[in-house]
Amino acid sequence: MLLARASDRQREFSIRLALGASRLQLLRQLLTESLLLAVSGGLLGLAIAFGAYRLFSSWQPGFDVPIATALRPNNRSCGLRSPWLS
Description:
Shape: rod-shaped
Helix content: 55-70%
């Protein structure tokens, strides 16, 4: 998605280069925008996950369920654990 968006912005980048922006400045702008989108998407995903956790953990079905379910987000599922740590 970001690649398609960047290709659509080719005219904008050409104008910025013509006005004196360096390629490093354009790259920094793209990386900043990508990081902002990734972080905001991740935070929104975590908010939805914790909201769904609270909703589903408080819900009690109208019949007896013989299976014990433990719905708990952990560090691995939230991506807070480093992959090189065991």
